[in-house]
Design a protein that fits this description.
Keywords: Coiled coil. The N and C termini lie far apart (99 Å). Helix 10 runs parallel beside helix 12 and helix 31 (684-700) packs antiparallel against helix 32 (708-726). Residues 5-13, 966-979 and 1169-1175 have low confidence and may be disordered. The chain is built from 59 helices and 14 strands. The protein has a six-stranded mixed β-sheet, sandwiched between helices. Strands 3-2-1-4-5 form a five-stranded mixed β-sheet. A three-stranded antiparallel β-sheet has the order 9-10-11. The protein is mostly helical and 1379 residues long.
Length: 1379
């Protein structure tokens, strides 16, 4: 309130120093001394009021106290001196804040009033000064006695003050101020009404133009604003704003009261916003505060109040817009206010309150625990500073309750929850009804949290009743209306979940209310994220209750909206991103879309990364549980055991988290996961632990628990496994009972088909154990009925078909009825045709195994489907190294790697040779094919039309992204910063892969492109044989065969009846042992003696039968290509022969090359030939004598320099420019750049085939190895030929031989049309002799260098090299790959 100062007394005299000289010239005994001293004190006080000099004030007080002693108590000057001393001490208190000065002021002013009777001329003035000083002390100490006494004195003074008294208006104003303060203290509206009456009387005494009318209008506005808080009458608030605006008309910047006036107007505008929701009012308020701040002196209570109100208004705007900068500025202003206030300031609790609120709001946005802890600390300080009768204590209690509730949600300390409720209830006791709404909101939030802890339904009823009362009282435009409506909806949602389906109206009411709130909320409003999050939860609950998929999709939309609007540091973010993950997991469960599952894991891993740093957070437990479930579902889909182990890890961690939440679902999940791991690994301990978890859950679960049916189903599944492990049918009987109980409970619609299918399957197992044919038939009938009743898109249908197939096969085994057999394989085919990534492969492999065992006519189709599923599954895996790991280490790896040979053998048996070639091609070099797809030439597509050009661009863009992801090494992937990063990469890869597949399908819709990237037909594969026959060699356990593919003939089958898989393995093993046992210099003859018998055997049983057929149509000296599979890949087919005098060996008959696949050879042929007229080609020689491969025990290569010099001497400089990289210059990066820019390359260095990860196989350079993945990523500009003079560059992986993953194949894939590689270790001392002979033949004659002549040159080199210098194993170690 603006308080009027007393009328000025006395008038200006001569300057202080002149009067001082006068006083100093007189002695204290001089009769004129008292009057001179009186004159001096008046001059000092006047100068103080002009300059504010504290030294003048101190000297005045000293002199005035002396003046008191010079006059008797009844002398008029003595009375004046008492009044002046009182005012001076009050002024010094105002400047210094020392309460002792204020006490002295009241003491002197009280003495003055006691000596001035009611009829004294000084009475009104003395009473006014004493009352205003008592009111000042009240504002400092909150002592109600001071306020009461001030009001009594004002009232007495007014009774003696005539209407024409010039001080009457000030007396009325100050009296009204005191009455307003009394109202704020005791809440008696009569005091407020009396204040307004006195203000209005005063206003009549201060007409427009009066110098103090502006401050009076400010006071009237403040009183009206107080009355508005009492009865929410908008007319009071509107009149208050009018008063403030009228006051501004006569009050300009720099004038006394201007800052106070703008501050009060800002407060009124903020109140208007809170009631009417008009955001423009907040903006006007902030404009007032900005103007006031620019005009403020920066000190004093007026400035402090401005900072507090400004900070509070920024909180309001933040709640409306969500702009964190408002909170940052608010915290800054309030912190500044706190620093400016003396520790004894009565304004300090209010500032601490606002600062605590701003910090709490900022914590909710950023999740910074420091803000939360500081907020609690500041609010506790505020509580300590204000007494139990302090007018702001209820507000502080409410805010403190809200802050400790937030701390409970972060740390889980139940004491914080209890304290929050206690503080909110205490706050409500101190509020009038209409001021209690914020505190009531805090209480509702705490009660909802307590319900989550104790599940006491009375807490929900309390929330609902309180919200109903408030909503009936508040207008819909009130800023808190939506909050209360939201709390009511949250309570009904919790009530429905707690009571089950007994009252579905509760759920619908919650959803309808939330939708109504959501429709009115702008994005960024404080409630926006919470409402969308709870809408998503409510719709998910309804989906689980009714099975309407539309609810689930809408829930995901709301989650995405909340996720988009919620910063990652926001305290609500973990709950939002976790709910999105949960809903996506549900959608995956319903539809089986792997993309939903991957995104679900990314979301929940994101939440885990944040919450693992705050393990006490109330969401952490649920996060671990749901993340475990997601990994488990992904294992079930894709069969990656790492996912299963990760699922068990997360769920075990959840079980160990100290929490009040229900752990029955966790026990169920963990038991289910262990049961599954037992199924995979057959470790009985897993199954025993699983049963223990189920028994623990069963012992504690109440009959009405929502997860009881789930527990029954899972326990039944575990008992089925235990029945098999312990050979005890009683477990099956109990399992059937549990499943029937689960069905009788009435599981929610989306999952009921699974339960029914489980029951029928267990009945089938029991019937099989008991040989009960009637029950078997009943089970089959039940499966047939399920196959017709379950919706076609439901994932349970796949399970029904697979179980039906197993039952039908069993029934066939009993009575040999072929109808059962055909129906069984029809079920397999139907199940395999239903898309569910990962499960398709498992089912098709099972189909293939059974079809092979029973020689069913669907065997070939089963192989075809299995190979297609394998391609789809592996292509969806992020990196090629991971794909290889799956092919070599997965549960079905052994069978998967036999698929191509089994498929080819089956087709051969059926005389479908073209199909045999197609299936062999489809199953071999799978990873190379997938990588090649991303580099498909698109010229024809571009030239088709504009749509084709756009599709080609899209295809190239996505293919480039996929290749970058695919060609990462295991070390690059494991170097990820967190599981979240790895999961996000996986999700993005799968998303791009789906986009890639969609583009392919769009291309295939175009006329002429129907076969785009489909498995090649035989007539397309024949193109590989344009330069000579390609011989496919297939090793199968039943028979080994060769199929000769030619350009213009039907495929030629050559049965290799004299050999077997076992004999091929024996030959390969013999060569391996020979190389291992005779690896020293000088043992060449020993190796030859051991090698020749193998080459002879290879000739007799494999190569000679092929050559005999080829000679019937293929002239000697022609080129042939071997395309070996399985055990053939380790054998030196190109060197086979009788090795007897007078008899030709294979190199004497044909020029041999190898190719990993027909497609690889086609790709090499499609590379553009180098024209003779083209500019001179470049030749790069790379040499490095030392190994940079970690762990390598290789010795230094002594002949590298000599070999490079030899190569340079043999290169025709007229047609090939030569460059050498060796020694210190021979770094990996330099070499990779050289591979990019040179057409011809010769590599002489150490090479290593990595048996664990073939894609990590590498050439050793100066600083680091060049891996196979580096070569793949190099993308040479115009590659033609590469000579790999290093060890083991054409040695594949024994676990996945048909994948042909080695360095030479990598060079071929990178684009080098013709590659020389090595089948085993190269002898450094003899290699240069083969190199010399090779290049001598390669560049003989005057023809331009031609990479397609490499095979012929190598063939000649092996014959012309000095056999006394180069032993047999080193003559045949080099092989040619490509064209």
């Amino acid at each position: 309130m603006a308080t009027d100062s007393k009328p000025s007394e006395g008038d200006n005299c001569d300057p202080v120093e002149l009067v001082r000289q006068k006083v100093q010239s007189l002695s204290t005994e001089d009769p004129g001394y008292p009057s001179a001293l009186h004159e001096f004190t008046d001059a000092l006080y006047d100068r103080f009021k002009s300059t504010g000099s504290l030294s003048d004030l101190d000297e005045f007080i000293e002199c005035d106290e002396m003046l008191l002693s010079l006059y008797t108590q009844d002398h008029p000057i003595h009375l004046v001196a008492l009044g002046n001393l009182g005012l001076a001490f009050r002024d010094r208190f105002t400047l210094g804040g020392i309460l002792e000065d204020l006490e002295k002021a009241i003491g002197y002013l009280s003495m003055l009033m006691d000596r001035c009777g009611p009829d004294s001329a000084y009475f009104i003035l003395s009473a006014t000064n004493l009352a205003s000083t008592l009111a000042l002390r009240y504002r400092q100490t909150s002592d109600a006695a001071d306020l009461t006494r001030a009001i009594e004195i004002y009232s007495s003074a007014l009774s003696k003050c005539s209407d024409d008294n010039p001080t009457r208006d000030s007396l009325l104003n100050n009296y009204a101020n005191a009455l307003c303060s009394k109202f704020e203290l005791f809440g008696d509206q009569a005091d407020l009404e009396a204040a307004l009456e006195n203000y209005r009387i005063c206003l009549n005494l201060r007409p427009p133009g009066h110098m103090r009318r502006s401050s009076l209008l400010t006071n009237i506005g403040d009183a009206l604003r107080l009355r508005f808080t009492l009865d929410q009458n908008l007319s009071d608030l509107e009149e208050a704003i009018t008063c403030y605006n009228d006051a501004l008309q006569s009050c300009a910047a720099g004038q006394s009261g201007y800052v106070t006036l703008l501050t009060s107007l800002g407060v009124a505008l903020c109140s208007s916003f809170e009631v009417q929701g008009d955001a423009e009012q907040v903006e006007k308020a902030l404009a007032c505060y900005r103007s006031a701040l620019s005009a403020s002196s920066g000190v004093g209570s007026e400035h402090i109040r401005l900072l507090d109100c400004f900070g509070n208004a920024l909180q309001l705007r933040h709640q409306n817009t969500g702009d964190i900068e408002d909170l940052n500025f608010s915290v800054q202003l309030l912190s500044t206010s706190l620093e400016l206030q003396p520790t004894s300031s009565t304004e300090r609790p209010v500032t601490l309150l606002h600062l605590g609120n701003s910090l709490l709001m900022r914590f909710n946005i950023t999740g910074d625990l420091a803000d939360l802890n500081t907020s609690v600390d500041r609010l506790e300080m505020a509580l300590q500073l204000c007494g139990r009768t302090h007018q702001f204590r209820p507000f502080i209690l409410a805010a403190h309750g809200d802050a400790v509730l937030a701390r409970f949600k972060e740390g889980g300390d139940i004491g914080d929850l209890d304290l929050s409720i206690a503080q909110s209830k205490a706050a409500l006791l101190g509020f009038p009804t209409r001021s209690s709404y914020p505190a009531l909101l805090h209480l509702n939030d705490a009660l909802l949290a307590r319900f989550g802890r104790y599940r006491d339904i009375s807490d929900l009823h309390a929330v609902i009743n309180q919200c109903d009362d408030v909503l009936n009282a508040l207008p819909p435009t009130h800023c808190l209306f939506a909050r209360f409506k939201g709390n009511r909806a949250f309570a009904f949602l919790e009530k429905f979940q707690h009571e089950g389906k007994s009252n579905p109206a509760d759920l619908d009411l919650a959803i309808d209310s939330l939708r109504d709130i959501e429709s009115r909320l702008p994005e960024g409003e404080g409630l926006f994220v919470s409402v969308h999050l709870h809408l998503a939860i409510a719709l998910e609950v309804r989906f689980n209750s009714k099975g309407d998929e539309a609810d689930l999709h809408t829930a995901i939309q709301h989650c995405r909206i909340a996720h988009r609007s919620c910063a990652r540091k926001n305290s609500s973010y973990p709950a939002v991103v976790m709910q999105l993950g949960i809903n996506l997991l549900l959608l995956y469960t319903f539809h089986g879309n792997g993309g939903n599952l991957d995104e679900s894991i990314v979301c929940m891993a994101d939440a885990d990364e944040l919450l693992s740093k705050r393990p006490g957070n109330t969401h952490y437990f649920a996060c671990l549980v749901n993340l475990g479930s997601a990994f488990y579902k992904r294992f079930a889909s894709r069969g990656d055991h790492t996912d299963l182990d990760t699922a068990i890890e997360y769920t075990t961690r959840a079980l160990e988290v100290p929490t009040y939440q229900d752990k029955v679902p966790v026990l169920i999940n963990l038991g289910m996961m262990l049961c599954t791991r037992h199924k995979e690994s057959h470790v009985l301990a897993d199954l025993k632990q699983c049963v223990q978890y189920f028994e623990s859950a069963f012992a504690t679960i109440p009959p009405a628990h929502p997860e009881r049916a789930t527990l029954l189903v899972c326990f039944a599944q575990a008992l089925c496994r235990l029945a098999k492990a312990e050979d005890d049918v009683r477990h099956l009987e109990l399992a059937i009972q549990y499943l029937r109980d689960a069905i009788s409970i009435g599981r929610s619609d989306p999952y009921l088909p699974f339960t029914v299918a489980d029951l029928v399957d267990v009945q089938r197992r029991l019937a099989m154990r008991r040989h009960d044919n009637d029950q078997l038939q009943a089970s089959l009938d039940a499966f047939r009925a399920l196959s017709h009743s379950i919706p076609k898109e439901h994932p349970a249908l796949k399970m029904v078909y697979v179980s039906s197939a197993s039952l039908l096969l069993h029934m066939f085994s009993l009575n040999k009825d072929p109808l059962f057999l055909d129906e069984a394989f029809s079920c397999f085919a139907t199940a395999a045709a239903r898309p569910l990534l990962g499960r398709d492969l498992v089912i098709s492999l099972k189909w293939a195994k059974q079809a092979e065992r029973l020689h069913h006519s669907s065997e070939l189709q089963a192989y075809r489907v299995s190979l297609s599923s394998l391609d789809t599954f592996t292509h969806s895996t992020l990196a090629v190294s991971s794909r290889h790991k799956f092919l070599s280490q997965s549960k079905n790896a052994k069978y998967i790697n036999l698929l191509p040979s089994k498929a080819m053998a089956c087709a051969i048996e059926r005389r479908s040779l073209e199909v045999a070639v197609e299936l062999s091609e489809q199953g071999r070099g799978l990873i190379w094919h997938q990588l090649a797809h991303t580099r498909t030439p698109l010229d024809a597509l571009r030239q088709a039309d504009e749509d084709g050009m756009a599709l080609a661009s899209d295809f190239e863009r996505v293919s480039a992204q996929l290749e970058r992801w695919s060609s990462r090494s295991i070390s690059e992937m494991t170097a990820q910063a967190s599981r979240l990063t790895a999961e996000e990469d996986t999700r993005l890869y799968k998303q791009r892969h789906r986009e890639w597949v969609e583009i392919i399908n769009r291309v295939r819709e175009k006329k002429g492109f129907e076969s785009f990237l489909r498995a090649l037909a035989y007539n397309e594969l024949q193109e590989a044989a344009v330069g000579g026959p390609v011989i496919l060699l297939n090793a199968h356990e039943k028979h080994c065969d060769a199929i000769v593919v030619t350009k213009d003939r039907p495929p030629l089958l050559i049965p290799l009846q004299s050999t077997s898989v076992t004999e091929l393995a024996t030959m390969g093993g013999t060569i391996y042992r020979m190389l291992k046992e005779t690896g020293y210099v000088g043992e060449g003859k020993v190796r030859e003696r051991r090698l020749v018998p193998v080459l002879r055997k290879l000739w007799d049983v494999v190569v000679e039968p092929i050559v005999n057929e080829l000679l019937k149509f293929l002239p000697r000296g022609s080129r042939v290509w071997f395309c070996p599979t399985s055990k053939f890949t380790t054998l030196p087919l190109h060197a086979a022969g009788p090795y007897r005098r007078g008899l030709p060996n294979l190199p004497d008959i044909y020029i041999c090359s190898y190719t990993p696949s027909l497609s690889a050879l086609n790709r090499s042929r499609s590379q553009k030939s180098h024209l003779v007229s083209a500019p001179p080609l470049s030749f790069l020689a790379i040499g490095q004598s030392n190994s940079a491969i970690n762990g390598s025990q290789e010795s230094e290569l002594q002949s590298v320099s000599a070999e490079l010099a030899l190569v340079e001497s043999l290169i025709p400089s007229s047609s090939l420019s030569f460059k050498q990289i060796s020694g210190d210059e021979g770094t990996a990066d330099t070499a990779i750049e050289g591979l990019r820019t040179h057409a011809w390359v010769h590599l002489a260095c150490h090479g290593k085939q990595d048996l664990g990860d073939p894609f990590a196989s590498a050439f050793s350079l100066k600083d680091r190895p060049i891996s196979l993945l580096d070569i793949i990523r190099a993308e040479p500009e115009n590659p033609a030929f590469a000579f790999l003079s290093a060890c083991d560059t054409a040695v594949g992986d024994e676990h996945t031989p048909d994948e042909v993953i080695h360095l030479a194949a990598g060079m071929q894939f990178a684009g080098f049309r013709s590659v020389i590689g090595t089948m085993w270790a190269v002898d450094d001392s003899t290699a240069q002799h083969m190199v010399k002979e090779f290049y001598k033949h390669m560049f003989s004659g005057d023809k331009a260098p031609d990479s397609t002549q490499a095979a012929k040159a190598l063939n000649k080199a092996s014959k012309t090299v000095d056999k006394n210098v180069v032993p047999l194993d080193q003559r045949i170690v080099f092989i040619h790959i490509g064209v």
